[in-house]
Design goal:
Elements (H helix, E strand, L loop, with lengths): L4 E6 L1 E5 L3 E7 L10 E12 L7 E6 L2 E9 L1 E6 L4 E5 L3 E5 L4 E7 L1 H6 L1 E11 L10 E5 L6 E3 L5 E7 L1 E2 L2 E2 L9 E7 L4 E5 L5 E8 L1 E4 L4 E4 L2 E5 L4 E5 L8 E8 L7 E3 L2 E3 L2 H12 L11
Antiparallel strand pairs: 1-22, 2-3, 3-4, 4-11, 5-10, 6-9, 6-11, 7-8, 7-10, 9-12, 13-14, 14-17, 15-16, 17-24, 18-23, 19-22, 19-24, 20-21, 20-23, 25-26
Length: 292
């Protein structure tokens, strides 16, 4: 059964991190989360003049995963476990914060000096109770290594960040079965993505427009489509569309567990939240060593 569209949500514009603009479909005052997803931010696109680019300085996390998918720009990350790396256009970082760490995500010094466009996504995925205190880990996938899929006519293409699409599987290992696809569907194209009935599913449009579900409900740039129950998500782009649809298709199993949330900590109880704050304040999550 094709999943109907339950609702279409327009993302809200706001400032995040050190002061960079995002479009956020959730969480908002009217939509706290879409279990197991806690947050979806489209970062930019924003054009920074030389010397003006900003990011997210040192901050902690515990109890969930952060997924950074960069479409344009050049970012650096560092953390309190001694990890460091770079993200360029098309790269993905899937960070499992688990028991906790402090990390930063800042423009690369060369990018900051010359300026340019930053555009990308940050997705927060909740961890189940049994995994909230697992050891932190990173999975960083370069753009060239992200599997790609296409249908027979080539009009529907996908970068398979997590899960499976059109017979192509992702290389990222997830704690719970997550689907994360970057879809590019040309005018006249369509995609039918099978999804297990127990999964929650949504699509966020960030370029062009499309039609979703059996009634071909329209949605366009900056809108989130929340699917209802069913076994497959259908996405169509009319043949007379002016441009391709760009969208993130996300799916995952609702955890159905209590959520206690305070800023960068997501646990199951207020006591666990208080412990997370105390552990951070007393230095148990460590600190980022000064750059050499």
């Amino acid at each position: 059964m094709t999943r109907p569209v339950a609702s279409v949500i327009t993302a809200q514009r706001q400032m995040e991190g050190g002061g960079f603009p995002v479009r956020r479909p959730f969480p908002t005052a009217t939509l706290d989360r879409i279990d197991p997803f806690l947050l979806l931010d489209e970062m930019g696109p924003v054009e920074w003049a030389p010397g003006e680019a900003i990011g997210a300085p040192d901050h902690p996390h515990r109890g969930f995963e952060t997924v950074t998918y960069l479409l344009a720009g050049h970012m650096c990350h560092r953390d309190s476990w001694g990890n460091a790396g770079e993200l360029r256009a098309g790269d993905v970082q899937w960070m499992t914060a688990g028991s906790g760490l402090v990390h930063s995500e800042m423009p690369h010094p060369d990018f900051a000096a010359r300026g340019g466009t930053i555009h990308g996504f940050q997705l927060w995925v909740n961890l189940p109770r049994a995994s909230k205190m697992m050891a932190p880990r990173y999975q960083e996938i370069a753009a060239a290594d992200i599997p790609r899929a296409a249908n027979a006519d080539g009009l529907a293409q996908a970068r398979v960040i997590a899960g499976e699409c059109m017979g192509t599987s992702a290389s990222i290992e997830t704690v719970i079965p997550i689907t994360c696809l970057h879809l590019t569907i040309a005018p006249g194209g369509s995609l039918e993505q099978p999804l297990a009935p127990e999964l929650v599913a949504m699509a966020y449009c960030f370029g062009g427009a499309g039609e979703f579900g059996p009634r071909r409900t329209p949605a366009s740039d900056g809108q989130l489509v929340l699917f209802g129950d069913g076994e497959a998500a259908h996405v169509f782009v009319p043949a007379d569309a002016a441009e391709p649809l760009e969208a993130l298709l996300l799916a995952g199993p609702p955890l159905g567990e209590p959520v206690a949330r305070y800023g960068p900590f997501v646990m199951n109880s207020r006591d666990e939240l208080a412990q997370a704050v105390q552990d951070f304040q007393t230095g148990k999550m460590g600190s980022i060593a000064p750059a050499e």
